[in-house]
Design a protein that fits this description.
CATH architecture: 3-Layer(aba) Sandwich
Largest sheet: 6 strands, mixed
CATH class: Alpha Beta
Strand content: 15-25%
CATH superfamily: NagB/RpiA/CoA transferase-like
Distance between the termini: 13 Å
Length: 184
Amino acid sequence: MSARRKALSAEERERASEDVCRNLAEDGAIAAAVVPPRGRGALAVYLASPSEIDLSPFVEEMLHLGATVVSPRWNGETYELARIKGLGDGLRRGPMGILEPAEADVVDPSAVAAWIVPGLAFTPDGRRLGYGGGWYDRLLALSSATSLKTGVAHDFQIVGDLPCEAHDVPVDRVVRCRPLRRCP
């Protein structure tokens, strides 16, 4: 899956990112959970590596609407969630080379109302294959039982079956390219 994702052209990756961000922005459940005054908590997102679906337009929109947006940040021992104030200044490269909040404005995972999580592959019933470190599973294990967990993927990342261990936290659904558009 990693090799297939890396083989996508910049145009294919951009088109898929636009589709996914549009689908997320039009999703009433996410906005209702995180946008004031009705929103009940923060929005947790990942900041994309070069081969991942880029959520930047969606993150900017949620920040513009007043949502508290958080992302994983390495604190020297583990990953924690820290507030994102914007996608310009205030970010640094973490130990994996991925952008993360520079300041430790930490938000407890139980205060997150909606999660947008990456993965190498997903099943239609929400099982997720991550990158092997278990970092998202550890953060998701601390989340509220009522938080909405959404995976994002290219169509080819949806597979029929994946191995599942007791510590794996499934997502509630997967958002991907719109079926009517030609997706990578």
